[in-house]
Amino acid sequence: MIKIAILGSTGSIGRQTLEVVDRFPEELRVVALAAGKNRQPFLEQCLQYRPLIVSLATEEDAKWLKAALAEQNYYPEVHFGLDGLVRVATCEEATVVVTALSGAIGLRPTCAAIKANKQIALANKETLVAAGEYVTKLASEHQIQILPVDSEHSAIWQCLHGEEKTSVRRIILTASGGPFRQMARADLAKVTPQMALKHPNWTMGQKITIDSATLMNKGLEVIEARWLFNLDYSDIDVVVHPQSIIHSLVEYGDGSMLAHLGMPDMRIPIQYALSYPKRWFNDLPRLNLTELKGLTFEEPDLERFPALALAYQAGKQGGAAPAVLNAANEIAVHAFLAGRIGFMQIPEIVEKVLENHKPTGINNLEEILAIDQWARNEAARIISNC
Ligand SMILES: NC(=O)C1=CN([C@@H]2O[C@H](COP(=O)(O)OP(=O)(O)OC[C@H]3O[C@@H](n4cnc5c(N)ncnc54)[C@H](OP(=O)(O)O)[C@@H]3O)[C@@H](O)[C@H]2O)C=CC1
Ligand SMILES: CC(=O)[C@@H](O)[C@H](O)COP(=O)(O)O
Ligand SMILES: [Mn+2]
User: Fold this and answer.
1) Is 123 touching ligand 1 by the criterion CB < 6 Å?
2) How many whole angstroms separate alpha carbon 199 and alpha carbon 190?
3) What's the complex ipTM?
4) Is the pLDDT reported for residue 361 higher than 90?
5) Of the candidates 166, 172, 126, 146, which has an alpha carbon nearest to the alpha carbon of residue 331?
6) Which option is the CATH number for 2-149: 3.40.630.30, 3.30.465.10, 3.40.190.10, 3.40.50.720?
């Protein structure tokens, strides 16, 4: 029996993780759950899965939850805030922590989970973007595997199984291109949050959906791949593949390319991160090759989608730059969703914050969090002057 804690159980990845749990009741058991503001769905999850430790974002919601659970004669540990996330991430019974929070808020609980010797099934890419070097070093010191959940990274991980790292020529991350793949630059300035929230292939949380539309998601994934697979940026490429059927590829030195194909369904990589090294049979919809209308590929357009180039630039610069990129992007995406800035201002703001950042190395978690906070403040300052 694999005992799991989920950080972000009310979100897109969190709910799909629970669907995987429902399919495999003999293999998987939920022992701890954390969410943010969606207290009613979280209450229902708690009553269904009966975790030992639970947490919500605010003290008020935690009090409400505790009372609602007590009415059902159920008394788990109830926590709130960042400390609550850490408590869920370090639940003694858990062997695997699924990190399904959105944003760098996942950094501290993920580190706490690693220090508590939990395996990490990582969806929360912002943690590796902000602190890839620190987190991967910590994981290696604790002999913890970080198991990829992100579809592209799960694909690459599977294409690398059994191969020598020295045989790899490069990896190729596929990108859908988002909803504005064919839109002229002049029109991009006018897109609304409602338009940007319509991803062509995936149903996801709001933040990652906007990141997909700007191609920042692919930039974050390039940095995520750099740390998950310990590769140079020169060995990580991106190709636009609008159908999202090939989830990514590895090119080997002998000219072979291994690709991972499947339906665009996150329950597949979530399940694999939990079943690894086994593969469990399931009844999910299957890919029918003869029904495919064709698989096409294009170069990403860095003029219209500068966020991808910014991410490569920050990744190559190293030090605190990726943390700055990530934090500024989080604030800019939030401002776009709130109608305070335009779509093309998202990469502009990230670029300005990167320019204003004085390059520095980072040695520990507190320094990373301080830089993250500086970048958030700087992005907010620039937005308030827009
Ligand atoms: N969705 C997808 O298909 C994919 C997502 N990912 C990555 O997975 C991560 C999660 O994405 P996704 O599921 O789409 O995001 P969602 O926005 O759907 O879910 C985020 C979850 O985090 C919780 N949360 C957010 N802030 C806090 C906080 N301060 N304290 C406690 N809980 C908090 C939310 O709680 P609440 O709702 O209760 O407020 C929710 O449960 C992201 O890093 C994303 O990039 C990667 C690949 C695919
Ligand atoms: C499902 C998943 O892994 C997302 O990260 C997805 O890849 C986003 O689509 P884009 O390729 O449009 O960024
Ligand atoms: Mn992805």
Assistant:
1) yes
2) 17
3) 0.99
4) no
5) 126
6) 3.40.50.720
